[in-house]
Amino acid sequence: MTEEVKKEEAQEEAKAETKEEPKEEAKAKAKKEPKAEAKAEAKEETKKETKTEAKTEAEEEKKEEEKPIDKMTAKELREIAKAIPWVSGVHAMKKDELLAVVKEARGVQDEAPQKKKKAKAVKKVYTVRDLKLKIAKLKENKKQARKAKDKNKVEVLRRRINRMKKLTRKVAQA
Predict the structure, then answer these.
(1) Domain boundaries, the chain
(2) What is the pLDDT of residues 31-62, one digit of tens each?
(3) Does residue 67 sit in helix, strand or coil?
(4) Which of 131, 141, 161, 173 is the most exposed place for a label (fewest CB within 10 A)?
């Protein structure tokens, strides 16, 4: 920056000499010009800032376009649907309808994700006798946990025993 300023001052002095202006006037202009240069630099910086803002906005738009259609918000889908000439009533449409229209316009076939079928857990049919045997084992474990002074394990076993007792009542009714 300082080299550029020096070059410009030298050029101004050369112009002043060719125009036959006194050197004092050229120096006075040179003193005023740094302020003008500062203003010019400030303008350039604001231009750069606006350019970077414009770039970031353009990048955001690209990101929105790169975003999968299924992941877009309803607002984004409406903006895309507005650009489609044969579509009307975009604002009244819901996201599902907008998705269908945009996919149709872009020629994307709607691939329904195949849901994984979970194997249904087969409930074991317990008898009251089986449940009571399990309760007896849990009670023994609970006594051992009390001797070991393990409060957490005692609490867990207490809950399990309680659950088993409820199950025995259900099985007995059925």
Answers:
(1) 15-66, 69-106, 128-173
(2) 555 565 666 666 666 666 665 665 555 555 55
(3) coil
(4) 173
